[in-house]
Fold each of these.
Amino acid sequence: MNQRIGRNQEASHTSDKALCAFGLSHRIDSSRQYINLQTYIINDLIYYLQ
């Protein structure tokens, strides 16, 4: 009985790790897109100011 509970906890723990890694990679991608957007805006401002 105790072994079965332990195995289930291990499985849920590994899936939590996978979800956490996926969330981190998604967050990094969205921050990259945000930085790209900011550089486009800054380039447009520089272009208009010239």
Amino acid sequence: MCVGRSLKWGLRGGSAILGGFLADCASQSKRLSRSHTGSAQGGKVNGNADKVGASTNANIRYGPKTAPLGNDLALLYPPPALDDDSLLKLNSLVRPVHCLPRRRAILYRAGTPCQAIYAVNSGAMKSYRITAAGEQQVAAFHLPGEFLGLSGLARGYHPFSAEALQLTSICVLPFERLSELAHEVPALQRQLLRLLSSTIAREERLWEAMTGHSADRRLAFMLIDLRRRLPSRRTAPDELRLPMSRAELGSCAGLAAETTSRVLRRFERSGWISSSGRTIVLRRPEALRRLVGGEAREAAARSSAAPDGARQQR
């Protein structure tokens, strides 16, 4: 089912759809899990060049229960949305964990069954795929308070692999229990629908920012976006301590590592940023915003000025 299409039907209709959708996901993930049991490591799934290993969930170390907080998690936990009883049920479902306590640990691999969604409590993750040429292409970064694993909802398997960029703790929300609880608590269905809508909107913003724009504009957008999403110190809100390498940052923007370095040096010469290792200070964030906004307006103007046939071809 197309989740985006169901959003415009409104929360009431969407909630009913979401309940059935989650049940289908849980059922499908069970079937896929059974079909993957006993499969050899290193196989290829659906032509994906990424290697599929055994599930890494057995290696997750479970920690004490805590109340999850953060950007996406706040969509599940706004105080007026759920009563005390519903919050207790949801808290019993969410399992905070300390996941694979080392950098570059794999949470799941592309092609493995999607049996849960995950929320980052602390640290950072990246989603990526391996291209036909054998190169790693970063699809997204997942920062504290954000979810990952949602792209496997409709498919029943993960289309991307997920890797920890640093020591990372996560919450696990199993599909089967989430489906059952969504039927018991209608307000939770509405909150999950908001979560899916928010995730789709964030992916659309990233896609629009990366499509048909210059390398400078793409990287400016990434820096402004990370400034908004990364935890910041109150005394230095414009200082970004990147959990990812510059090559990974560029990969998410569709840029080669050399291009990324060249653009960042150009930003430094312009006085827009200063950098040392993985720390980048936005000296003139308004200049980066103007670059992002200016190119967006120019692209919109070109699109509106183009003949109808040309717009359709694009």
Amino acid sequence: MRALTAIVITEADITELPESIGKLENLTMLQLNRCKHLCKLPASIGQLNSLHRLLMVETAVTELPESFGMLSCLMVLNMGKKHQKREDTEEINFIVPASFSNLSLLYELHARACNISGKIADDFEKLSSLEILNLGRNDFSSLPASLRGLSLLKKLLLPHCKKLKALPPLPLSLEEVDAANCISLESISDISNLENLVMLNLTSCEKVVDIPGLECLKSLVRLYASGCTACSSAIKKRLAKQIPDDIREELPAIVDILGQILRLDFPTFTSALILLGVPNTNEDQVHLCRCPIHHPLVSQLKDGYKIHVMRREPPMMEGVELKKWGIHLVYEGDDDYEGDEESLNESQQSPRKDGKVLQLF
């Protein structure tokens, strides 16, 4: 048994692990996903000096033993839980031991919906290898200033942290920040020095009044601010700039809304259109997608073929309803305006076109 390198126990009706598990000195991976009655880890788990990956998704564990910080080789920890409505479950705050900051090799931490509340300990910089940090759907009100010390952090995921009020100065290495539906978020520290930031999601952050430094983000490709009342001059200035040629033809996608090419009523190609940046509202919305000539929805379209837009069944996400849809083929020169487009309002101006374009709305 001591030669074991991996243990996989999933969806098992166990409540605890034996203390003897600490004797498995060669164990590198321990998976306990969806063992929903597992409520504690033994203190001996800290003796697993070779453990690299600990996966305990959707368990009942609410406290890590003090010995947890002795897992000197741990690189990946996933202890995320499935979000549940508060009225359906008793609130038990997740307890993280002080020794947790000793996990200096940890580069991926998922603690989604673990009911982490209040203030997070201000010793984050000790997790010096961290690259991915997922704290979504927790109830903490603030993030520690030491977060900025995570010099390798690339992804900071904070969606649905509904009590979070402010974003402190962030690590310069960040490539993605997701704070969607942080409905109490009011202030964001200057982000002008986040030169590697590609994606910023502030969907439904309705209390945010400014995003300092937004106009300086040279690498930013995707900004989601629907339902965000930040209507600052910085956002307007950013959106008014020329779209770089190297990302001009990148298309958004909307999960659960599919575009299909039909030949004799049989689908020959299907493309999902990904729904990101949609505000949490019941109001009707209109999405316009322009597919360039090299997109399969255009390049594979032939005489006699049909295009159909539909909702995926069964859906991947609830609450999306497709009420109306339409398509329009645009050829080069079709919507050119011979006069001065500067005199037209934004809805009348036509974007640059190169050949045939398909508009989906």
